Amino acid sequence: MKILIIGGGYTSCCVARMLADLGHQPIIFEKENQLGGMARSFTKEGMTYEFGPHILANHASEQRVIDFILKYIEVIPTQMDSATFLQSKHLNYPPYFGDIPKLKESAQINLELEKLIHIKVDEANFESYLKSKVGATLYELYFKHFTEKFWMVDPSTLSANWAKLRHLGQSLTEKRMFFNQSWCAYPKTDFNELFRNISNNLEVHFNVTIKNIDTDKTTITDSSGATIQGDIIISTLSLDTLFQYKFGELEYRGYLIEPKIINQEYFHLQNPDSKKHYSMVYYPEPNVPYTRTTEYKCFNHKAGDEAYHGRTIITVETPSKSAKFYPFMDKTNENKFSQYIKHLANYPNLVSLGRLGLYKYTTLDTTTQQVFRFIEKFASWKMYNAEERLNNYHYIRGSWNN
Question: What is the CATH number of domain 2-35+199-250+328-397?
Fold first, then answer.
């Protein structure tokens, strides 16, 4: 089949590669002049960075996912050391019981943790969930103000699913972020090589903006007025954009990410346990406008390159409502999404995939898993009725926190 794919990010490249390998004819239409979307790599004065800390890791995906990624990129094992800058000191992130004596509120925290032994986990919302996991004081210090800064709402309006997805409050005995506990790697070169390799021999049209989608005729029309017909259309646009905000706007949060060159060997301090410099530092206190800094030479294995001698590059992340990185997980938006996905299921010639297309936070590995699930259903997609397609979308997407 001739398959028109809107967008040139990882989801589009991944599904195009799998469909081409099955003998179909995918065509990617990308509005910029390069593939990769927010997953691609950038350089500044010879130093590599991404829009936030990008690594390849296994976030509860199947082995076939890792095998697929490794088919298209050579990697080097890595780890990400993370810290929280709190009360003028660097402490472990996620919260670690060994740091409690270093906090001014240590006595109160210990009392609260003792009481939690007899308390059932409360999944009513983000705030109640974390309070029942780590107590009110640790919640306020590490999560409350950080969440207010990033999401720009009262944390009690957020779903507990976000905390569960990110493994927040899961353990006070683990010093490493959860994704470091299994496979964790960085490309030997950068993420752009992944997109070059995975798109090899695929038909890609750059600098194309799609102005109209005709699901009855299975055509798309670009800004020049050209109309292209296919057998099926796959969109990675945001669902609300795809359907012209029929059920209202889906909310997202993200970062304005500013790269900065620092004229010193390292910007972040060294982790006293691992003896490595921190890759990421979180800033939960409300008086700091940004929420995280990332230092790439700490995990991308390029610290020995000449460009990094005596200097380093970091990115500073400041919360923004305009950046569509993370779906806003509250009841209102979950209800809107339910309306959109039910409406989408009525279209046999139109498929929506990806972080924006299925309104779910995904990483490279969980995106690949999503595409594999779609490929399993692809041969019969047009033959399904609306209810069957809806059930398949829920299978492809997975739950909010898995």
Answer: 3.40.50.720
